[in-house]
Amino acid sequence: MSLNWYQCKKCETLVKKDSSPSSLGCPKGSMHDWKKLGEVGDKDYLCKKCGTHIQTKSSPSSLGCPQGSMHDWKKL
């Protein structure tokens, strides 16, 4: 299985996992709202809206930015 980046749209928590993390226990509400951003890799991306910095194999998903509907990724 591949390792992927997941981010909660509500609390901005960022995790690397091979499957979707548990939704229980979000500090901003009862359930996390996880969005799969992409497969862990060696290309650096920074979201200009929320400041999330991840390394993926290809361009990350734009869905689920905590600061609005879509991430605005910049390749570093």
The radius of gyration computed from the alpha-carbon positions, rounded to a whole number of angstroms, is 12 Å
Structural class: mainly beta
Strand content: 35-45%
Which stretches are low in confidence, meaning pLDDT under 50 for 5 or more residues running? none
Give the overall silhouette: flat
Share of residues in helices: under 10%
Order of helices and strands: EEEEE
Instruction: Please give the number of β-strands.
Output: 5
Largest beta-sheet characterization: 5 strands, antiparallel
Region (Disordered): 54-76
Biased composition (Polar residues): 54-64
Structure description:
- With 76 residues, the chain is mainly beta.
- It has one domain.
- It is 0% helix and 39% strand.
- It has no helices and five strands.
- Strands 1, 2, 3, 4 and 5 form a five-stranded antiparallel sheet that branches.
- The protein starts with a strand and ends with a strand.
List its salient traits.
mainly beta; flat
SSE blueprint and pairings:
Elements: E1 4-8, E2 14-17, E3 34-47, E4 53-56, E5 73-75
Write a brief caption for the model.
Residues 54-76 are annotated as: Disordered. Helices cover 0% and strands 39% of the residues.
